[in-house]
Design a protein that fits this description.
142 residues; mainly alpha; Globin-like; 8 helices
């Protein structure tokens, strides 16, 4: 079974129809750092949970086709410029996600964890390294 098949099967078991997955995730994630608690103080968590579901799907999609959507580019910019997410923050995010999977996926294993890491890492790397390109940048490259 490919890592994408493992990822998709795990996604369906853990997230598909589970209304508690994202609550568990945010409880674990916010507990990892006082700065995370501050960042989410005035945030609609219902909206945040929907955005996280979308983000996971866009990260998975990026893993398949290695092309960022406008949504993923905007998400990267927001996380870099507005929220100022560090490399360590991304690592803690992925740790919390795997911990949540261990709770909500009854077939969680090292192979399942590896499939999530392998599937999401390309998109996470994109989010960390994406730089906005302006018309001026394009003109200066010639």
């Amino acid at each position: 079974m490919s890592h994408l098949e493992l990822f998709n099967d795990s996604y369906e078991r853990a997230i598909g129809s589970n209304p508690h997955f994202f609550d568990t995730f945010y409880d674990l994630f916010i507990a990892k750092s006082a700065s995370f608690a501050e960042k989410f103080t005035h945030v609609s968590m219902e909206r945040q949970k929907l955005m996280l579901r979308d983000a996971i799907n866009f990260l998975m999609s990026y893993s398949i086709n290695h092309q960022a959507t406008d949504y993923l580019e905007q998400l990267a910019i927001k996380h870099q410029e507005d929220i100022r997410v560090s490399t360590e923050d991304y690592e803690l995010w992925l740790d919390a996600l795997l911990e949540t999977l261990a709770i909500h996926d009854p077939h969680y294993s090292d192979d399942v964890a590896a499939s999530w890491i392998q599937t999401l890492t390309p998109g996470i790397t994109f989010m960390q390294t994406y730089r906005r390109t302006t018309d001026q940048d394009i003109r200066n490259s010639y």
